[in-house]
Specification:
Elements lengths: L2 E7 L5 H14 L4 E7 L7 H15 L5 E11 L2 H14 L4 E5 L7 H6 L2 E4 L7 H19 L7
Parallel strand pairs: 1-2, 1-4, 3-4, 3-5
């Protein structure tokens, strides 16, 4: 079974979102082995410091054989069908883990961007970290249902 991991900073702060995350994880794990690795949230006002610390923590979790997709507002925009196609290609043909990265409020360093194989944007809108994690999980589940011909996505 393919392994997918989400790397992100911090814990979800709202109980309702924690329950929603748990529900999506159950649904996603029906199709793939999916896990979330949460690095410690850096609480500091200096954005460069936060970016550097998060980059170090993320890179420690990423293996050389991983296919890494950053989720970033500056990335390539696509619809759910395009996202499902990328997910299907990487699940089917990439031998290592598929790793998604959601940065903290300060964004990504150039070093982390260079390590990523792909950078995807879900929207030009800015989302809170907690809300975006749920949106991301919903899109992963949606993509998996599209790949398996399940009617959820319509």
């Amino acid at each position: 079974m393919k392994t997918i991991e989400l790397l992100c900073s911090g814990e979800l702060k709202f109980k309702g979102l924690q329950e929603l995350e748990k529900k999506y994880l159950q649904n996603i794990n029906y199709f793939v082995k999916f896990s979330i690795k949460k690095i410690k949230e850096i609480k500091q006002k200096e954005e460069n410091f936060v970016r550097e610390k998060e980059t170090t923590a993320f890179l420690e979790e990423i293996k050389a054989t991983d296919y890494v997709i950053a989720l970033d507002q500056k990335g390539k925009k696509m619809d759910s069908l395009q996202f499902a196609k990328i997910l299907e290609q990487k699940i089917s043909y990439h031998p290592g883990r598929l790793v998604f990265v959601i940065g903290g409020y300060a964004g990504f360093t150039d070093l982390l961007r260079r390590r990523c194989n792909h950078i995807v944007s879900f929207s030009d809108l800015t989302f809170s970290h907690d809300i975006f994690r749920i949106v991301f999980l919903e899109q992963i589940y949606r993509a998996l249902t599209i790949m398996h011909g399940i009617r959820y996505h319509r």
